[in-house]
Amino acid sequence: MDVLNVFVQNSALNGMPKWYKATTLLLFAFILAIIAVSFFILITQGSDMNIRYGY
Q: For the chain, which end, N or C, has fewer CB atoms within 10 Å of the first or last residue's CB respectively?
């Protein structure tokens, strides 16, 4: 939790209302989770995926 407080203090979120900080960090965590899950799926299922380019 200390790391999160230092991150907020050293960013543009310092001085913002608590609800704004919470919303921003939740959105950031959600985007990070989507990227992590997508990367995991790509690693585990990547060899089975066929991407076809065509008209």
A: C
Q: How does pLDDT run across 27-48, given as a tens digit for each residue?
A: 999 999 999 998 988 888 777 7
Distance CA 44, CA 49 (A): 10
Which residues have a Cβ under 8 Å from the Cβ of 4 and sit 6 or more positions away?
Answer: 25
pLDDT tens-digit profile of 1-32? 688 788 888 888 888 898 998 898 899 999 99
Q: The pTM is what?
A: 0.67
C-alpha span between 30 and 54 (Å, rounded):
33
Helix (H, G, I), strand (E, B) or coil at 54: coil
